[in-house]
């Protein structure tokens, strides 16, 4: 079973679990398996057009799957998948008072 | 009109509880990276509407194109911090960054790029190299379309 780490904000849609184990051959399998177990996660991970949201990073161990074979990336039982929404911002756009 | 003082409703709004040394450390980080923005992760426990910080992790700012008014944390660094936290029984409960020579309020950029609903976003203004005011905002809402940053109390313990 491949482990999927769920970020704190999404655990409420994943039965309050921090880690979910899924039997999967690819990243695509793992994500669709995750969503079939926890359908409420779908709208938080995917747009209405069915694309992974731009700010949702999916990592296989320490690699961004965008730079591997995306959803076709093969996964093994010993692998760990992390879902990490991006963390960014800054004072840009703020007027100096 | 009669209005109820905010403090009577204690516990209703979100709160960030943080030890003095961690609080000082995140403010110090803003001085160390001045005139660039600093950024980092707050780890600990969610306790109802409160977030209890038990450790603070400094991160690098990957926005080398505009470090004076933008920050971004490398997801790879976040995964490592998350893993180390998990081994200590800690979860990610929030993030912090600085506003060099800008007010300690969230900017439109901060809101647009905040995605960790239920977490705290701490902002410290750094004026001429000295940490000034530190505020915390909880990202509330049920999804991207209705998210808001709402100021919360910081309780330094
Ligand atoms: Zn900011």
Give your account of this protein's structure.
A five-stranded mixed beta sheet of chain A has the order 2-1-5-3-4, covered by helices on one side. By secondary structure, chain A is of the alpha+beta class. In chain A, a hairpin with a 2-residue loop joins β3 (56-60) and β4. Chain A contains two helices and six strands, in the order ββααββββ. Chain A starts with a strand and ends in an 8-residue tail after the last strand. Chain A has helices at 27-37, 42-45, and strands at 2-5, 19-22, 56-60, 63-64, 80-85, 88-89. The mean pLDDT of chain A is 95. The radius of gyration of chain A is 15 Å and the shape is globular. The longest helix of chain B has 14 residues, at 20-33. In chain B, α3 links the parallel β5 (91-100) and β6. Chain B has a seven-stranded mixed barrel with strand order 1-3-2-5-6-7-8. Chain B has a single domain (12-156), classed as Cytidine Deaminase, domain 2 (3-Layer(aba) Sandwich). By secondary structure, chain B is an alpha/beta fold. β6 (88-89) of chain A pairs antiparallel with β4 of chain B. Zinc ion sits between chains B (97, 99, 106-107, 110, 123) and A (89-91).
Helix-strand topology string of chain B: EHEEEHEHEEE
- What share of the residues of chain A does DSSP label as strand, in percent? 15-25%
CATH architecture of chain B: 3-Layer(aba) Sandwich
Annotated CATH topology of chain B: Cytidine Deaminase, domain 2
Q: Write the CATH homologous superfamily of chain B.
A: Cytidine Deaminase, domain 2
- Radius of gyration of chain B in whole Å, from Cα? 15 Å
Relative strand content of chain B:
35-45%
Please state the second-level CATH architecture of chain A: Roll
Question: Which whole number gives the mean pLDDT of chain A?
Answer: 95
Largest beta-sheet characterization of chain B: 7 strands, mixed, barrel
Q: What is the CATH class name of chain A? A: Alpha Beta
Which ligands appear in the coordinates? Answer: zinc ion
Tally of helical runs of chain A = 2
Oligomer: heterodimer
H and E string of chain A: EEHHEEEE
CATH class of chain B: Alpha Beta
